[in-house]
Amino acid sequence: MLNDPRSHGLWQETAPALALADTPPLTGPAEADCVIVGAGYTGLSAALHLAEAGLRAVVLEAAEVGFGASGRNVGLVNAGMWTLPDQMPKALGPLYGPRLLELLGSAPAEVFALIARHGIACEAVRNGTLHCGVGAAGLAELTERARQWRARGAPVELLDAAEAYHRIGGGSYAGALWDRRAGTVQPLAYARALARAAMAAGAAIHARSPATGIVREGGDWVARSPSGQVRAKWLVLATDVYTRQVAAGLRREQVGLPYFNMATPPLPPEIRATILPGGEGCWDTRQVLSSFRLDAAGRLVFGSVGQLATPDFAVHRAWALRAMHRIFPQLRGIGFATHWFGWIGMTGDHLPRLHLPGENAIAMAGYNGRGIAPGTVFGKAIAAHVAGDLPLEAMPLPVSRLAPAPLRRGRELVFRAGAMALHLLSDH
User: Any idea where the FAD dependent oxidoreductase domain is (predicted)?
Assistant: First the structure.
């Protein structure tokens, strides 16, 4: 994508193509009920649901559909956020906390229902995810997380070490939390398919059309790009951590966390059968976490915190090989064929943000590495609000003020250096 093999790697190679002619740059003036900046999960879901409601939606994307985190992530369709369930009411209050928990708990079901309704080809597998516990502390964390989700009726199961090993096919984890609500997708394929569905419903998507200026004129929003402009009653900002200068405040409130993935070639059938036979996606409880899953062709996708720039790349690649071979000794002698990385936008409390940057304007940001399911359902909620079907007080999040993250640049340097140091000295 954009001639950068490290931007989307395997996902670019295996996602069904989206013809450039279908998402041409904006030229000349256009009018819409809503202009959306950003063609990731949130913006595309909003465009789809607005179009299905009979409203004209126009999406402006600076690069290509799914260029940001939506096309680079691991592909885990998870329920909830990093925050423990009991902490959400404490952080958001007795109204919004339970409301957000209910929405995010059912968000994977919304994603897979949308996939089924539109016949989306994105390697969707809904056999759950495994949150793998590292040592006694990791198991204690998962035990508490399981207790809190079960108290809310969620179909989660705490596996012991032997059960976790059986489902994973390797590793020495103390246990794992199996969440049957969740699953995996090919993330770029899902984003592109959302774009196709939105356009089929009547939305317009313009790639290579960065919003260079956004102003209020005569009660409307006017979003300008290099070769055109869109006038609309409503404005939606859905660029998250990949935000550019026109909405720089959304970027400044998040700390950027680099995350990479590397993928093996398709594994031989006899080896593939020994790894994740149920098709779950996995990640562990380490602070500098690891994740792994299989794609439809049997490639193991292995990831962790880190940036694939020089000299980081060599350190992270060597570590990933050591770590993968430690968890799955049957893969010794097998390396990586592709690699890529992107940015996760982290907020201080690991919860997303809802902002109102002006009259008839709404922005979402801060997915903290949980973008597929939350982005899909938040986009749907935004569309319902714009259409007049969901009042602001019924939204899943309270409105918050933009506030820069303290010591943001310094913390980003610490994340990068810390991951480098850990991966240089350890295979964990």
Answer: 33-384
